[in-house]
Amino acid sequence: MRNSQEVKRFMIQMKNYIRNGFNKGWQSLSKHRWLKYLTLSIASVILLSSIGFFFIIYGGGLIVDEKEMVLPATTTVVTEDGTYAGRLYTENRLLTPLSDVPDHVLTAFIATEDERFYSHAGVDFRSVLRAVYKDIVALDKVEGASTITQQLSKNLFLTNDQSWMRKTKEVMASMYLERNYSKNDILELYLNQLYFAHGVYGIETASQYFFSKSVSDLTVTEGALLAGMIKGPNIYSPYISEENAVARRNVVLNQMHRVGYLETEELLQLQGQGLGVTPQPEAAPAYIDDYLEVVIQEIESTYNITRDELQRGGYRVTVHMDPLMQKKAYEHVNQSNYYEASNDEVEASVVIVDKETAGLKAVIGGRHYTIGQSHHQALTKHQPGSTIKPLAVYTPALENGYHPYTLLTDEQKDFNGYIVRNANNEYVGDIPLVDALAESKNTTAVSLLNDIGIDTGKSYLDQLNLSTKDDGLAIALGGLSSGYTPIQMATAYNTYLNEGIYRDSSAVMSISDRNGVEMTSAEGEEARVFEKQSAWYTLNMLERVVTDGTASRYDYSGALAGKTGSTQHDSVEGATKDAWFVGLTPEFTISTWIGFDQSDEEHYLTKGSSQAVHLTKALLSDINQMDNIKHAFDRPSGVEDLPAPITLPEITDLNASFSLGGFNLFRAELTWSTPSDERIIYHVYEVTEDGKKLIGKTAGEGSYTIRQPSILQMTRYYVEPINPLTNQAGTLSNPAMLSLFD
Known about the structure:
Distance between the termini: 159 Å
Helix content: 25-40%
Low-confidence stretches: 139-143
Oligomer: single chain
Strand order of the largest sheet: 7-6-17-16-15
CATH class of the domain at 94-271: Mainly Alpha
Number of helices: 22
CATH architecture of the domain at 94-271: Orthogonal Bundle
CATH topology of the domain at 94-271: Penicillin binding protein transpeptidase fold
Shape: elongated
Strand content: 15-25%
Mean pLDDT: 88
């Protein structure tokens, strides 16, 4: 306690002493006004200088925005086998760790740009003094003295103006970086942010662009060339001026010699070498853009990564794309010989979905589509026309008690004011379900949907990710208020290849961030929609569409099933708005759409779905040449094939005769010619004075024995062929007369 009181008393005495001394001193200065002002001025300068010094040393945090230190990095898109497919970026930059950069490459940059990099604290004052001296002599700013850290600070946080204020901020930011980051951190960031002309950022990207190799494989001369370029990328690029590039590279090699990295003999030998650059890379092929747009939108919706984040984030995306299929599809879509339209602004889309994975193997969003365009036709909804019939009507009917050979009625009919007509305005009466689908009868589709119920048809569409708010019978003909995208249609039809199981399609297999961590997303939907037998029957029926129905035009040698579709133009009589063909091969599903961005009086198709069939079959034939495409669909286990159609014969040679034998004295034999199809059933009729009656049946044979024929009166006989699949009866044969006395 005593000690504390003594200390307190001492502090009070000192305070009074200082105050008295200051007052006496100030009174003394007051007697000499000029000395007072001089003292104040010196004190102010010292104070302001101290504040400025500490602000420069410690105020860099106000300049540095650490978010800017996360460099925009290129997202790389590759196929399943690692083949390069494309890049997405705002700045084309592939990040690389400093550990991957060889020592001779580091030396080239440090020797040229900042040879005392590892010894200064962000600012090289020796270089600064030299630069200031030259600036004063020239009465202008003629020489820079920026260290690597200062260059990095300027490039990341500041503008390129030459003011002293900008230079001060540069120093502040540099000293902040040096205090808070290691030299290696700074150097790694520096090498990754550099610009090398031609839209190339970062040393790894530059290595691949100029030398087609990774930075880890660069030679001394190659590293020197890149180090020399950063002073003036558009001056020293070897693709712009080889002479300038050689001269600048040799300057860098001289610097490496001066700092002791190269011996004189080695220097001379290296300076005599050529540049060794590879041919300038071509721009990314145009056919990739269509697919990349789908990738971007899928990642946005599935992984919640925005387009901008994807283009800046340095992700690695693995996709289902088949580059050859994508290229072939692009080439065919951009040919003009398939299209029959009012003008050459006609658009088209092709989508190919893999059977096994439901991966998008190819996506074309339009003719000459470029990434970012608003109309990507594969992602745009179009009215599906008759391509909806199997999905909403015919397969659901098979699920609900119908058979491919169930007889339907093809006739014009009024459904409470909704009058349905066939496209050709022709009607055949009774027709098997399979033929109604093959010939794309509108009447039977609407009638069948009416029979099974609109809600039933819509329930299957819901399961196929084809939900619609429409509630009318027009659903059977694809007359929807909105419609579906070609991707949706290909995905839905792919269900037939997978035994009735629906799988969501996707472009993206996996995505990893810039640190190599794979990102997860919700699993795609997979569910049984149709029974195996119904799916297989439908696939068989869709083969009939191609062999005998609306898609039979144009040749294709491989196995193919599918359905055509078209919609009427709203304002041009007899014109078509949308033309479709959705096809199935043993390996994949293909959806083709043709139409216009906007349909009006000047934009319409002059023909219907045949042009979509033409494009599809030509593309498939081209793909067939590069792949071993199957020529038949593999029947799943536990299902029956769709029976082949039966053609009933016209019997004109029925003959009747008596014969002897057996327990009966007389027998009658009827004979007639038969086709090879043994499934046909023949009904035998006898006509007497009492009328006509069925006396027997036989299958596959052209003969029938009457064991107790009438011998006392003349009897006529007829044979009627019957189709057991549909129970349809053919034409009665010629009559055969039988009389013992004739």
